[in-house]
């Protein structure tokens, strides 16, 4: 009798803890109250079970990798449950998520009556409901916020995270949308290709290549590279729509419990519509975007979460006759499709302000000082603001007078005992500013004087960036790029400099006359990294000049640049990589160059994709967006 009892005990244990490497039978359940219960893939890479965000008593049923959710039942926040929730695999073949405290149905697979006989979680991270060996329903065909290697993302799929969504249109355009209404990112094939797509889809290869596929294309069109492209083994790379509205590629090594951003669709987070909520203003501190209110006429909706936006202390309708316009220098209110064209004018800055003030329907306006004379009026709706010293625009926001500006930040950190901090800060700004000024000035003069000389010949925009990168490196180092000496171990200086950069020995690269001064080495490091990106061997992977400026200013994060080579070893276009990999984990190692993580679509024999801000898109060559 002891043996049968032992067998029964083992069977009971297998269904109350982790189920491994076997089909999951009908009638199985998982409870949130038992954190040890889960269904795992055969090699233990992925598991399906309840997880919590740790800060509140909220639970999600999720497939996880390294503890990070890569699929959530019902999405976020639709799939939120409490600690009494259960997942039931009913005899009918339907999968149901119930909130135990109320027995309310939170989510279901709607697969009752389809002959489902078992379920399984495979090593690619795909959870299948099967009729014998045929898949009836799967998480790969019903994604929530993540795309995994081997997963086919089509025009029928949508990624969602909070108010944000990501779609692939039939035209091949990739779009990011706020609240299913405002399209703030739209990137697609260059119209000169003149190709009608039939069934476009997206796929991520395990080595970190995100591509567009279609039978009418001559080959996969590369959307983006992970910045750690082909590096390392046992690394999972995935595409995820985050709650801040940005689409990113992440990588996470097995067992590391860390995920690292390797690419982002929107390089400037403040350009994501609604990032700081209604009436919120997005700006940057030293490295990160921060949210705040336009003035002291406003207050945060939630003092604990500045991203939820701001509200007026006194509403406009409560102060008839005393409304005025708050001026915000170097600021703009984001204007993306489908903004009403009747609210766009070509007027001066004063008229842009007054037209909004006298209009009962206008609450804000932005006047662009970029030579276009455009004025955007914002009618009562969601208003998303962005303020930065680099923005050539002035914005106005209707408030009840008098205007109460935010406290000046110029005196922050100064007191009578520590006044020296201001002096030191000014010195640092002057030194770094002078360095960047010299870089821009000398690079510009060099390009202007030499671009059409007989010695150098005509230079295209691609090669102008190459030369600019060389000038950056030469100014920082005080050495010529092609200089070869004993100090550089008889190597070309740029090759030697990259080797020192990889070792973390940045000071060896920098001109000794600079290292003897008090300079910001973080800023110098940015200049060196930018120079390596500008001299990238593949011209199409060099960043645009606008992004170069953002990287130098510290607005945009800089991924690790690839190393310069004396000769090109190969091209991505010539690399044959099988997209249908059996495992989601990359174990591929190669010596190919790591391309830039910038959002540029490429393919062998296919011209690059046009991509840009929606404000510039009216005159671009992108394919027009289609309705879903």
UniProtKB/TrEMBL annotation:
The way it spans or sits in the membrane comes to:
Single-pass type I membrane protein
**What top-level branch of life does the organism fall under?**
Eukaryota
Q: Which GO terms describe its molecular function?
A: ATP binding; carbohydrate binding; protein serine/threonine kinase activity
Q: Does the keyword Transferase apply?
A: yes
Read off the Pfam families from this record. Answer: B_lectin (PF01453), S_locus_glycop (PF00954)
- The primary site where this protein sits is membrane
Asked if the record carries the keyword Cytoplasm, the reply is no
**Which reactions appear under catalytic activity for this entry?**
L-threonyl-[protein] + ATP = O-phospho-L-threonyl-[protein] + ADP + H(+); L-seryl-[protein] + ATP = O-phospho-L-seryl-[protein] + ADP + H(+)
Compartments where found: Cell membrane
Q: What class of enzyme is it?
A: transferase
Q: Which residues form the signal peptide?
A: 1-21
Keyword set for this entry?
Answer: ATP-binding, Cell membrane, Disulfide bond, Glycoprotein, Kinase, Lectin, Membrane, Nucleotide-binding, Receptor, Repeat, Serine/threonine-protein kinase, Signal, Transferase, Transmembrane, Transmembrane helix
Gene3D superfamilies per UniProt: Bulb-type lectin domain, Transferase(Phosphotransferase) domain 1
Residues annotated as domain Bulb-type lectin: 24-142
Q: Which PANTHER family match?
A: OS07G0415500 PROTEIN, RECEPTOR-LIKE SERINE_THREONINE-PROTEIN KINASE
Q: What is this protein called?
A: non-specific serine/threonine protein kinase
């Amino acid at each position: 009798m002891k043996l049968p009892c032992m067998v029964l005990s083992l069977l009971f244990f297998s269904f109350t803890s982790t189920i491994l490497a076997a089909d999951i039978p009908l009638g199985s359940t998982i409870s949130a109250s038992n954190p040890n219960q889960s269904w795992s893939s055969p090699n233990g890479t992925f598991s399906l079970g309840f997880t919590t965000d740790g800060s509140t008593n909220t639970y999600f049923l999720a497939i996880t990798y390294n503890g990070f959710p890569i699929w959530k039942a019902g999405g976020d926040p639709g799939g939120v449950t409490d600690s009494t929730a259960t997942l039931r695999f009913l005899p009918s073949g339907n999968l149901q998520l119930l909130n135990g405290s109320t027995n309310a149905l939170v989510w279901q697979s709607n697969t009752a009556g389809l002959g489902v006989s078992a379920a399984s979680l495979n090593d690619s991270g795909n959870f299948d409901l099967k009729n014998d060996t045929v898949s009836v329903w799967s998480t790969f065909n019903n994604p929530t916020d993540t795309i995994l290697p081997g997963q086919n993302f089509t025009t029928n799929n949508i990624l969602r995270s909070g108010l944000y969504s990501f779609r692939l249109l039939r035209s091949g355009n990739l779009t990011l949308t706020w609240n299913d209404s405002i399209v703030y990112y739209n990137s697609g094939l260059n119209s000169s290709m003149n190709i009608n797509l039939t069934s476009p889809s997206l796929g991520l290869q395990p080595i970190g290549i995100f591509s567009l596929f279609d039978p009418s294309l001559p080959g996969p069109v590369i959307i983006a590279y992970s910045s750690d492209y082909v590096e390392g083994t046992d690394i999972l790379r995935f595409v995820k729509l985050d709650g801040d509205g940005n689409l990113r590629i992440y990588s996470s090594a097995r067992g590391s419990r860390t995920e690292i951003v390797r690419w982002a669709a929107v390089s400037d987070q403040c350009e994501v519509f609604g990032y700081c909520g209604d009436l919120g203003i997005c700006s940057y501190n030293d490295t990160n975007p921060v949210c705040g209110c336009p003035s002291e006429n406003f207050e945060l909706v939630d003092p604990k979460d500045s991203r939820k936006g701001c509200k007026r202390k006194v509403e406009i309708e409560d102060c008839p006759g005393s409304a005025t316009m708050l001026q915000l220098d170097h600021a703009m209110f984001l204007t993306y499709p489908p903004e009403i064209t009747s609210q766009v004018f070509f007027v001066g800055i004063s008229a842009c302000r007054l037209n909004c003030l006298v209009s009962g329907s206008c609450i804000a306006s932005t006047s662009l000082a970029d030579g276009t004379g455009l004025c955007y009026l914002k009618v009562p709706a969601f208003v998303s603001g962005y303020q930065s010293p680099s923005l050539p625009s002035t914005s106005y926001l209707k408030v009840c007078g008098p205007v109460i500006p935010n406290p000046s930040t110029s005196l922050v950190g100064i007191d009578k005992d520590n006044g020296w901090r201001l002096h030191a800060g000014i010195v640092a700004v002057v030194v770094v500013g002078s360095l960047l000024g010299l870089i821009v000035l000398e690079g510009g003069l060099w390009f202007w004087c030499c671009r059409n000389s007989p010695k150098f010949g005509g230079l295209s925009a691609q090669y102008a960036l190459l030369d600019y990168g060389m000038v950056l490196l030469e100014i920082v180092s005080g050495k010529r790029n092609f200089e070869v000496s004993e100090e550089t171990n008889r190597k070309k200086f740029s090759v030697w400099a990259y080797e020192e950069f990889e070792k973390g020995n940045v000071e060896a690269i920098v001109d000794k006359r600079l290292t003897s001064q008090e300079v910001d080495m973080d800023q110098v490091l940015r200049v060196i990294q930018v120079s390596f990106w500008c001299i990238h061997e593949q011209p199409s992977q060099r960043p645009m000049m606008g992004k170069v400026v953002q990287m130098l200013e510290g607005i945009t994060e800089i991924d690790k640049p690839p190393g310069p080579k004396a000769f090109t070893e190969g091209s991505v276009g010539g690399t044959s990589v099988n997209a249908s990999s059996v495992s989601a984990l990359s174990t591929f190692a190669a010596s190919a160059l790591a391309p830039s993580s910038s959002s540029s679509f490429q393919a062998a024999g296919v011209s690059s994709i046009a991509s840009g801000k929606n404000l510039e898109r009216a005159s671009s060559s992108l394919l027009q967006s289609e309705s879903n």
